[in-house]
Amino acid sequence: MQRKDFIKLSSLGLLGLYSCGISNVKNNKKTLAIQLYTIRDAISANLEKTLERLAELGFKEIEIYGFDGTFYGKTRYEFQEILKNIGLKVISSHHTTGILHNDKGTLLNNWEKSVEDLQYIGSKYMVCSYLFPEERTLENYKKIPELLDKSGELTKKAGIQFAYHNHDFEFQEFDKTQNIYDFILENSSSDLVKMELDLYWISKAGIDPLVYFEKYPKRFCLWHIKDMKAESKDFAEIGNGTIDFKRIFEAKEKAGLQHWFLEQDSSDKEIFESIKISRDYILKNDFF
User: Fold this and answer.
1) Measured between alpha carbons, how far is 160 from 119 in angstroms, rounded to an integer?
2) Per residue in 157-183, pLDDT tens?
3) Structural element, H or E, at residue 63
4) Running DSSP on this structure, what letter comes out for residue 242?
């Protein structure tokens, strides 16, 4: 280690992580990324300290959630300054539809302003993250592809790719010939609407992700990486569950993968302990 690197690591409090290989993440093209929903309670308590803790763990890229016209109560300028000071970069953001919960930051409430704000902080993707249970009606499902296309048209003008994030309910039957996920894929633009594939939820639904990579190649540019316990099917740390990530990552070219994010919705451990377990497993394996 060169002296200048030693000084830099020391000032960041990262010397203890150096032997774990985390300081070499960038050199090895191993850029750790996380969906902030994983640590939502910590963010609610103290945004800046939580983001600093992520940086100390070796994370460089983030996906944000809960945009409501502000970034966790911060203006876009304030949030951008926090990110710069800590050394984090926003890759993607999550947004709900606004079909029933028509709040700021949703697809149906002044979407143009949301796109402008996310463009300002440098986000490369904007994602429709979730359909609330009361939004999951046949009538709404039929409208979703058009809504996604229109949302994607606006993000494209700003140089941002739009995408849709799945849970397990999308793999329920839509009609006698296909499920909801296939309906969305086949009736939305493959250019305007990519997919953020959540490997936990598709696995919980009993579906092989590789089937979708073959059927819709290059459509799955974003992934959520989280594991699943064998018996309960609850969330697990990466490597502590049943999902064969090696097999899935071997098909990343077919899928069109560009970015992926560690996420764990809940844990039976302290959440940062879970993050460390997943991080260590990721760094030991060729997931990049």
Assistant:
1) 7
2) 999 999 999 999 999 998 888 999 999
3) strand 59-64
4) S
